[in-house]
Design brief:
Blueprint: E1 2-3, E2 6-7, H1 21-25, H2 33-41, H3 65-84, H4 86-89, H5 99-106, H6 113-124, H7 127-134, E3 138-140, E4 146-149, H8 152-171
Antiparallel strand pairs: 1-2, 3-4
Helix pairs in contact: 3-6, 7-8
Amino acid sequence: MRSSGALVNVASAAPAKEPPASALRKGKLLSSGAAKAAAEARGLAVKSQEERTAADNPEKPVVSAERRCRRERTNELLLVFLRRWPAAFRRPWPLAIGVNAEIVAALAEQATPQEIGRAIRAWCGGDVYLGRLAAGKPRMGLDGTLGEPATEEQRSGANARLMARLSRRAAR
């Protein structure tokens, strides 16, 4: 239940806890009246969403329209992959070496090799995919058949990428 913009606990009819100072320092949007009052009490500037700019939040850069279109196209292609090869793209599993060429040949009229490469990089760069590759799971062909497991070099490379990504997240 809401009352005059402040969050209210239905059981006790008391205002909800104010957000932690860390959330306020990071410049997150404040929607409730209590959160705005808490921020102002701490001497922090409160801005509406319209007043915020990319300079206010360097963690979230403004995404260009071209980049957004590329992301949308990548997601469309991943859906095409899933419909065409459900066994290989149902869940993140290490793909067999050389499937790129097979996919480019099969989808030559639907997408450019660059778009297909971007979609494959997005698929193969996910945390779960890298984790399974680092664990030495066998690679899978487009038809769903399991092949050779990843080599030690591939495993260590996937593990290094995954650990670097996790340490960057922890540092934020």
